Each structure stands twice: as structure tokens, then as C-alpha cells.
Give the backbone structure.
Amino acid sequence: MENNGISRRSLLAGLGAGGALLLAACSSAVDEAGSGASAGPTPKAGGTLKVAIPDDLIPKNLFTNSNTAITALIGLVYESLTRYPNDSIEPKPRLAKSWTASADGLSLTLQLRDDVVFHSGRAFTSKDVEFSIKAYADASWHAQGQLQSTAKAVTSVDTTDPHQAVLHFAHPLGNIFDLLDTVFIIDSETVEDIKTGKGFVGTGPFTFKSWTPNSSLVFEKNPKYWQPGRPYLDGVRIGIVPDTNAIAAQLKSGQVDFAEGVSPRDIEELSKDAKKFNKTTLAGAEQQIYVGTNVTAPALGDVRLRQAIAYAIDRDRIISEVFRGNGYATNLPWPKYSVAYDAEKNKRYAYNQAKAKELVAQIGTLPTIPYTYNTALPVYAATAQIVQANLAAVGIKVELEPVDAATFVKQLIGAEFKGIWTTFHSWAQYTPSTLVVSAYPFNALHNASHFTSDDYTSASQAAWKQPDGRSDAAIAEYAKVSDELLEALFLVEIGVIPFQWVSSTRLSGLSYTKRWELDVTNAYLA
Amino acid sequence: MTDTVQTPTRPAADAPTAPEQQLPTATPAAATPAAAGPASVTPAEDVAAVATAPRRRRVLLHGRGLFGLLLVGGILLLGLFAPLLTPYGPTEQIPGANLLPASGRHLFGTDEVNRDVLTRALYGIRVDVLVVFVAVPLGALLGTAAGTLAALIRPADVAVQRIFDVILAFPPIILAIGVTAILGAGITPIFVVVVAVEIPYFGRLLRSSILTLRELPFVEAAEAIGASRWWILRRHILPNSAEPLFVQLALSMSIAVFLESAMSFLGIGVRPPEPSLGTIIADAVSDLDTAPMQAVGPLLLVTGFVLGFQLIAQAVGARRRI
């Protein structure tokens, strides 16, 4: 797979970039929180970046951001209209240069860049904006993007001017920039190739060259990229390595310069060697680990049992032992920088075994509750076993049911869990209303917990329909949603976990989007 | 994998030698039971039966037989007395003891959820004991029954042989994955797979023994003087086939330990948090460089178990070939 790796490495080692490189290494891990490139020595053009990731591409799931191959491909080949900096939800220009929203919140006018061409050579116009948003909402895709409700609320797009797109909405959309950050612009002429995996044509810094299933993805520099002088790299070659131990081994042996899917403990070990490896913590692109409950399962319909579960879980222990201290405990989904974050509300179900025991005593006899988790990542098994011990300590007996990744996702989307389950959810890093109208576990209209409540539905709809997702009025609505989540407690949050990437110190300028998409536009190899 | 699975077929090739050694049981005296009826026992057979048992025991009292017996017995005792040997429970999460290296307090260290790995390994032996001493004999019993049926009734032979072919067509781990897909992970699929894997080996072994034995003169003689089929089977054929079956039993036990560990290692065996040697090793593999004892400790137990049964099988098999 990596035929020329050793010779190139030895050559570059011979160049002895030494001190300057080291400086870049120390700074990059910290600097990556921003969306731009990290400061470092003069960037050097050329070279192919070698990457290892654990997942293979599933072309039909392209809009779901559901695995590392998909997020790497989107990040390299495609671009969105606007982009959030990683630490806020204030949109910045990307393919759209500027925008103005109507006073009633029912339309948004986007001025588009006029110097952008697709990899096929065709110019990017407002028609592509219309096509991409419609494709995202299209039910014919195997798995749709979770923001489809927002995409469907875009009723029409005025494309009279090729460099101006006017979006019209069914109702004010407080999270419209979440959609514009998420939907990437695809080429209407080659859309069928996406479904078969034959070709992926976008406007991004790299062109798609080939995909060998279960083996590799190859990308080449886009010579017509609209950002002058970018990208620095000649290409990116991604190896698909399902075994996480093997990924760590490839990184250690220098076969690859960047890897995703390395376990928290391997990351901890590798990052001890700061001369060789950089750790990138994906701040602003967090995921939340949680215990979901099926409220229609025996005993779980009683909110006191769900409260007992929330009190019984030793969140700090899970964060420190399973996630090696990377993250923090929460009772609500919002990360600390979110406008919906409330430190007081977040302490509502702090670890309290006595309270949990009291609630269990009130309920009386409990059945054994099935507890499903995904065997794909070792962190799920470890979390589930700690939660199981925590619950046993307060008198709640659960039986672990490990299932493979495909079965787990099927049960999650189909709301088929028999008792409780543990996995990650995301979308809380965006406008808070996006979470409650989009994510499978939270969607007020259809969620994995079978939870329905008029109060929760109306609170989430009211938050969604705010014209400005960051206004005081919107924040007041988010507070109501938070209260509903804490009262109903159909989902027990454990903690907010930012993913972590590891790269060799040869690589500088590595970045990411809020959805973990790989951004190497400004990256270069020493 | 392939090697291990093919190993048990070796004694089957030895099977034809068995009747020659056992021929004394088929002396003319043994061939005169018709008048006395099937229930009576002739003196000559008595002597032969009594002589075989001590000899079998003797092979396990020296050399590799003894070593094998000690290995198996020692590990068995460790599993049996696990609660007395360690202060911790197998699923007990010891506060603050996260991923501790091997030390006097925790000989194999502690795992990612703060459990003592030695304790889990000792309790993990119990799963293997269950599989080895319940599932394997059950498979052997069903296999010999099917083998007998196949040898005695021609139409049944065709059906049984084809069923054996189907089972043998699946490598054990593939069969295990299939069974787990239907039954879900846990001890039950391990049990089912071990039983299913053993049936054809014992069945074929016994069938070939019977087919060879029934052509021998002493069986013909018994038939000629009017002995019933069931009586011949019970008094002549089964006792003469017993020894290769015993060798196969010891071999199968070693394979069962391996199979349980492999299934648990792949995550389709014993369900967490219950310990089994395979799951402990699987969990420890990612930390092999930082905490080697977590994997090496249970691996030694699996190796000891497999080696012990193999040595017993070899000792018994070698004595038969003298």
C-alpha cells in the first residue's frame, strides 16, 4: 500500500528540518481550535499526505457525516456556502461572499463567489445552490442528512442571477446557517456517480481520483482551486484500516502522517512523544456520550427510574478513565460555549447514589433491563460496564447486549432498543434548535426513545422558528427546551467529548470543520 | 486454525489397529454367549475389561501423560478454588485501580474498568470447564449415537453422512459466527458450536470402527452362533472402539478450550462483564506494549489447558500404537 513511504521518509529525514519543525509541532496542537491554518514556518508545497482511517466509504450515506471516510471525502472534495469557525456559530463566508436576511426572517439573499469552478471545469452558479439543497432534502437517498427538516423548510430558491441565490422559507429558520454550513455543493451533472461511488465532483481543494473498496481513497490537488496558492499538498492518499491497533501501529512506524479512529489510550501514549506526534483536539466539534432510554419499555416509563439512572452514573469516572480526561460531565447536551449552556441546570443530576437508591426504593421491584451498545468502539463497552456497575450499586439490574455497528444504527434509526443504550450523539455544537428538530435521539416528532410530549414538541418548534438563532428570544426558548429535557429525561447525558486526532510532527496546518470533516487546504508536509 | 481442526482426524486413521490389540476379548470363550443370554458375562471378557482400565490409568501416571494430567488438574483447581485464591470478585470494579501494571497486589494488573485481571482469569477458567466437561462429552455422546446409527442402518447412513458433511464444510469459527447471528452472543452459542463441531468427528470415528470390526472373524463367529445384533454391539463392537474415542475426547477438549477463547476473543462469546479467558485476552491486546501481563497471564492458562489435553491424548494414543 505504501510503496514509496520509506524512501520519501528517509529523504525528508535527511533534510533535517529540525528546530523549526519542532516549533511548529508544539504550537499546532493548541492552534487547531481555530478554523484556519496554524502559524508555523514557511509552508512548503508538494508531497502526498498519507492517512489511515478505520471506515470504508458508503457512498449512499454521503449526506450523513456518519463515518470517517465520508467526513474525509467531504472535507477534501466539497465545500459549503458558509462556514462556522470551530468555536462559535457566527457564520463566515465560504462559497457565499455575503448575505442579507429579510426582516421577517422568511428569506435570505446570498451573494456567491464568481471565481469558483467545479472539478469538471463548469462554473459554480446559484442553480447549484438550489440543486444541492434539494438533493440534501431528497428522500431517494439511502440515508438522508439529519437536517432534512430544515432543508425541506427551504421552499424555493430564486436563481435568476447566477451569482446570487435567494432562499425562501416556509417559516423563520433560526438554524438556517447550520444548514448552509452542513450542505455541501454538489455537481448536478455527475450526481448519479455519487450514489455508485464512481465519482465525486465538487469545488474543494482536492479532486477525487479513485476509491478501492476496503482499501484506499486517492485524491489529487485541484489546480483550479479558487484560493490562490492552495492547497500546498500534491495529493492525499487514505488507507482504510479497520483495526484501530493497526492504525496506531502505522502511525508509530511512520507509514502514515495522520490518523483518525485511534483509541483514547493510544492517543494518550502517542502524544507523550511530543517530538514525533501532535494531538489535535477537535474543540467545537464535540460529540456527547449518553444513556438513552426507551420510555415504552417495562419500568422505564416511570420517570423516577430514569432519574435514578441519571443520579447513579459516575460521569467524572467515565470521563477520566474511559476518555482519559478528554471532555467534561454534563446533564444537558450543550457544550460550554453554546448559547444554551447553563451551569446550574447542568448540575441537576449530579452523582448521588443515595438519591438514586431512594428513588429505586419508591418504585419497588424492577425487571432486568437490557442495555445495548455498539461493539465497534472499545469505549462503548467500557462505558457500558461502568454504567452497569453504577446502576447495580443502587439496585438497578441491567444485562449488557453488545451488537455490531450495522445492527446498532438500524436499531437507533428504527427506535428498536428494548431497554437502554449507549452511544454518541452530535448536533449540540450547532444552533441548539438543530438538535431537537434533527438528531435521531432528540427529534421531538420521532426519536429513538419513543418519547412524545406536547410541551417538548412546542418548545422545540418555537426555538426552531426564531428568525435569529442567537437572539435573546431564541435563548429563552432554548432554556425551555433544556427544562423539558431535564424533566422528561428520556435521554441521560454522560459527557461532552471532543474527538482527537493524531498526526506526525511532519504535518502542519491540519484543520477540521464542526462536523469533523478533514480540512488540509492549508496543510503541508515538512 | 486449519491445523488445529484437522488434528482430531488423526486417531481415526489409527482406528483399524484397535481391534487387533483387543482381539483377546474375542476369544472363542467370548463367542459362546447365546445360551447364557446377553446379560451374562464370560470370564475372559471380564479379565480383558479389568486389564484395560488400569493400563489406561497407568499411561497417565508417568511421562507426558502425567504432565498433561497435572497441567489440566492444576488449572482446574485454580478455577474451582478461585474465590479462595483472590480477595476480589470477577466483576468487582476496584475504586481508583485503573489500568494498574502487574504488581504484588494485582499479579496480572487491572483492566480499563478497574477489575483485577488475575481474578477474572481464574473465574474465566470456569467457563472453559463447563465447555470442556459438559459440551464436549455431550457432543461425543450424540456423535457416537449418530455413528452407531449410521453403521447399523444403511438408509440412515446416507442421511447422517451428508449431515456430517454439511457441518464439516464450515470451519468452526465461521460456524460460530453463523450460530451467534441467530442466537446472539453468550455462553449458549459457544455450547452449541462445540457440540455441533464434535458430533461429526465422533460419529465418523465410531462408524469406521464399527465397519471394520464387524467384518472380523470373532464378530462373524458370534453372529453364526446366533448372538443378537444388540448384544454383539454392546459386548464386542463398542468396547473395542472405546479407546480411539478416548483419544479423540482429550483432543476435542483441547479444541473446545481454543474455540471458546477464539469466540470470546472475537466478541461473539461470553457476554461482558462475565469473564472468560478469550475476552480478557481480547481486551488486553490493545495495551500489549504497556501492560503485557494482562494478556500473557490468561494466555498461559489457555496454553496450559490446550497443551494438557493434547499431552493426555498423545499419551493414550501412543500406548495404543505399541
In short: Chain A touches chain B through 21 residues (CB under 8 Å). The CA atoms of residues 458 and 478 of chain A lie 12 Å apart. The longest helix of chain A spans residues 472-488. Residues 1-38 of chain A have pLDDT under 50 and may be disordered.
